Structure formats: C-alpha cells, structure tokens
Amino acid sequence: MTEHPHPSESVPAAQQPAFQYGRAQLFHADALAWLREQPANSVHGVVTDPPYGLVEYTPAQQRKLRAGRGGVWRIPPSYDGRPRSPLPRFTTLTEDDLAYIAHFFRNFGKAVLPVLAPGAHVIVAANPLVSYLVSAALSDAGLERRGEIVRLVTTMRGGDRPKNAHDEFPDVSVMARSMWEPWVVCRKPVDGTVAANLRKWKTGGLRRISADQPFGDVIKSAPTRALERKIARHPSLKPQDFMRQVVRAVLPLGEGVVLDPFAGSGSTLAAANVVGYDSIGVEIDETYVDVARTAIPQLTAC
C-alpha cells in the first residue's frame, strides 16, 4: 500500500494566529487537529482548495516540486517563453491512493461538521478525476450534496497523445483536454426551514449577485494572472476574480466567518478581505504560511 504520512504528528493545532491582516487570520496548524479544538457552530461557510488526500503535499513530493522534477507533479513545458504552472499527475494515483483520498475527505467532513453552523455551505475545489470521491466522502460524513460549481477554464490537463508514441498515433488523445474545473458544493443540514435557519444562523443559502440575478453554478474564468502567481507562489493558486465571486456567495446575508482549512498562500482570505468578510485560514506548511504573510495584503490590493 502507498504510504501516506500524516503531518499532524509534527505540527500541533495552533492557539494563536501566525498572521493577521484586515479581517483575516491565518493559523499555522494541522487542519483536522485545529478543527477539533474549535467551538461548535462557529463557522458560517467554507471555501477551500485542499490537497487531494495529501498525496501531492507530502514533504517528499513538495521537495520534488520545488526542485522542478519528479514525483506526482508534472512540470509543463514553457510556452512562448512563459513558464506554465505545475499540475499533479492524478492519472498516476493507485487504487490505494484513491482509497486514501476518500478516507481523508471523510475525516475532514467529520471534523468540520460540528464546527459549521446549521445550513453552512462547504465549497471544495476538485478536478474531474476525483470529484466523485470528494463528494461521496463528504456526504458519508453527514454533509448534504448541493451540486457543483463549474469553473470554465482551459488547463494543461489532458489532450496529450500517447506517451512515446506521438508520431504513431497523431490523431489520438489519451483523454479529453480539460476545459472546466468542478467545485463540490455541500451544506450542513438546516435547522428547520431555510427561512428559519437564515433568521437564526444567518446561513442556509447562497448570496445572490443582485436582486435580479441569482448566483449561478457556471462561472467563466481564466488561468491565474502572472501578477498573482508572482505574488503568491503556490502551485494550485486560483485567480482572485473567481475566488471573490465564490467567497461572496458562501455567506447568504453577508454575515459570519468564512473558513479555509487548507489556506495555502491565502487566496481565500484575500478574497474575503475584498468582499468585506471575516475569515480564518489554517495552513500546515510553514513555507506557505510565510508566503501568505506577504501575499494576502498584495492579493487584497490587486
């Protein structure tokens, strides 16, 4: 079986934030350990881009990524002189790896559920190869599946010809070129009706764009801007234009606390600052905590 070391053995849950900026707080801690110490019903929405079972964020895989070669991460070639962002090779995951992803997200769901206010939404970035596992695991943990948000964006994933046989099979792609990214949407069960839940907990729905326009589940997007990638050096960084839309939607009345338990370089927290929400992030990797110290203020100002 593939070994998946658990990082909580070396990083305890934090009692005090490592960093604060605007209305955002960032803790250096293991997310599951941190969640177990939080008050019940204290979080009103979650927006996060998590590690898929920690496979690509183990210390060994991060060393290979930072060295620029090897491991789960694929380093795409430059295009027109511009370097491309690395992508995890999800097609290399074994059956044991996939089982661990389900195990990890089930444990995450069970840890976050008590901390959520009734009706709080959890919006989780995924990809077409593993989103079904994420959705099923969170449902098993007690969250209600509420669909998916489709981020329309063309990535480097898919579309390649067979490895070492490009010339032999020039008209064949191994898999479809990815032109969308799924974000799984779940919700903690409401307390009574949605209206009653909104009155009591300020949660239960998604914030409309305007009185005439509801929040939709398809959002046109673009790859993350070069400026943002320069500010926040994280391989999975999502663009602020997209993050601000999703973060705004997660608090239906614009009140409460948004949590990102896998905060990376702080893009969710920066988006929350921009839309005027209180936010909390948790990040286990000290390198990314240090990146977030400078990235959150700069992304907020973008």
Which key features would you list for this structure?
302 residues, alpha/beta, 9-stranded mixed sheet, two-stranded antiparallel ribbon, 30% helix, 19% strand, globular, Methyltransferase, methyltransferase, methyltransferase activity, RM_Methyltransferase
Report on this structure.
The protein is an alpha/beta fold and 302 residues long. The chain is 30% helix and 19% strand. It has a 9-stranded mixed beta sheet with strand order 1-2-11-10-3-6-8-7-9, with helices on both faces. Helix 7 (240-250) packs across helix 8. The chain is globular and about 65 Å long. One of its GO terms (biological process) is methylation.
Mean pLDDT: 87
Order of helices and strands: EEHEHEEHEHEEHEHHEHEH
Strand content: 15-25%
Q: What fraction, in percent, of the residue positions are helical? A: 25-40%
Structural class: alpha/beta
Distance between the amino and carboxyl termini: 44 Å
Pfam family, one: N6_N4_Mtase
Keywords: Methyltransferase, Transferase
EC number: 2.1.1.-
Domain DNA methylase N-4/N-6: 43-292
